[in-house]
Amino acid sequence: MSFIIDSHEDLAWNIVNLNRDYTQSAFDIREAEKDTPIPAFNGNTLLGWPQYQEANVAIVFATLYCAPKRLDKGKYPVRVYDNPEKAHLCYQENLEAYRRLTGENPEKYRLICCQTDLVKHLDQWQSHLSSSQEPPPPVGIIILMEGAEGIIEPAEVERWYEWGVRVIGPAWAGNRYCGGTREPGPITKLGFELLDHMAAFDLILDISHMDHQSILQALDTYDGTIIASHSNAEALIKGIPINRHLKDKALQHLIERDGVMGIVPLNAFLDWDWRDHGGREAITLDHVIAQIDYVCQMAGNTCHVALGTDFDGGFGVESVPFEIDTIADLPKLAPQLAKRGYNEEDIGRIFSDNWLRILKQNLPAS
Ligand SMILES: [Zn+2]
After folding, report:
1. Taking residues 304-310, what's their average pLDDT?
2. CA angle 90, 94, 99 (to 5 degrees)
3. 133 has a pLDDT exceeding 90
4. Dihedral in degrees, nearest 10, Cα atoms 211, 214, 215, 221
5. How far is the CA of 123 from the centre of ligand 1 (A)?
6. Of 136, 138, 118, nearest to 128 (Cα)?
7. Ligand 1 centre and the CA of 68: distance in Å?
8. CA of 230 to the centre of ligand 1 (A)
9. pLDDT tens, residue by residue, 199-254
10. Which H or E element spans position 334?
11. pLDDT above 60: residue 1
């Protein structure tokens, strides 16, 4: 039995903006929100601590994320920024949310910043999985900064690194550093300076949300490890009109760079017009498997694909494949992968070992 590493969840954004309490069950969170505007705004939650336990989710790459004011639709009062200083404060507030979550609930959540933390965490998970007598270990948190607007100037990377950030995705929308989703453009001069500072600390570069052009530039120039924490293969997404996913050339290059892509089980990222194509019932885990298989066929192995759910990242249970009610349903992928010829080792790589390879390569010793 393998555990799961999920490479993208906006936990802090939900904690800070929606007051979601992820020490609770997903069903209790839904119940608490049922008479509020939250389900209409952000969907019904897919996450909760008992559901992590049920699926054996051992590690989550949890984001620091905040949106620019110009893209806020005003449907619900959330934190936004309109200059780098405000962005910095928003991202700090996210970081503080993880300090509180792990500080107040050490039996449920734990920050992982170095190899020592990782080894201790994995030991505890291994002994839990080999003897169900053990109490369930905490969910480990790797901090991922989604959108680098919170970094006021590139040299500030060092401070974010000291504060525990281990993965940085320079873009969400386009910004001072590079072109992003719906706002195409190259990596800027400032963006290249940012990458230089990131490389100096072995920070993992996350190309999800970067524009196609800036992704190719990053793959050509970044010295360190590159991942796509939550992206799919664009070639398989019917009707996708936005620059949010990886074109074949980028995917091929990511594989050559020994990177990993976390597949997102969000219906619109599997079939853009899914609502017109039969709705939720029509989108199933088969679509997710097709994405996984596409990467494996391109690579000729199972070493470059994993899971990056983005659960609660602006959507909820209403917008994910039919068989998924909460994150507890992710293990349903295993028997379906097995039916397609994936053996236990392959499934272990997809569920966790590929992300473990990246973490073992990049986290500092202590
Ligand atoms: Zn995202």
Report:
1. 98
2. 140
3. no
4. -170
5. 31
6. 136
7. 13
8. 7
9. 999 999 999 999 999 999 999 999 999 999 999 999 999 889 999 999 999 999 99
10. helix 333-339
11. no
Q: What share of the chain is helix, strand, coil (3-state, %, to 5)?
A: 45, 15, 35
- 214 Cα to the center of ligand 1, angstroms: 16
What was the pLDDT predicted at 131? 85
CA 60 / ligand 1 centre spacing (Å): 14
Burial 234-265 (b: 16+ CB within 10 A, else e): bebbeebeebbbbeeebbebbbebebbbbbbb
CA distance 87 to 145: 12
> 141-180, pLDDT tens digit by residue?
999 999 999 999 999 999 999 999 999 999 999 999 999 9
| Average of per-residue pLDDT values in the chain | 97
Q: How far is the CA of 85 from the centre of ligand 1 (A)?
A: 21
Give mean pLDDT, residues 65-78: 94
DSSP labels, 189-251 = HHHHHHHHHHHHTTPEEE-TTB-HHHHHHHHHH--S-EEESS--BGGGSBT--SS-SB-HHHH
Question: Between the CA of residue 26 and those of 29, 33, 139, 280, 321, what are the distances in Å?
Answer: 5, 11, 15, 20, 17
Distance from the CA of 169 to the center of ligand 1, in angstroms? 9
DSSP 8-state symbol, 25: -
**CA–centroid distance, residue 51 to ligand 1 (Å):** 22
Q: Which two tokens stand for residue 23?
A: 């020490």
Task: Give Cα 123 to chain centroid, integer Å.
Answer: 24
**Ligand 1 midpoint to CA 188 (Å):** 21
Give the model confidence (pLDDT) of 269-282 as tens digits.
Answer: 999 999 999 999 99
Written as one letter, the residue type at 294 is Y
- What is the whole-number distance in angstroms between the Cα of residue 158 and the centre of ligand 1? 23
- Interval between CA 245 and ligand 1 midpoint (Å): 11
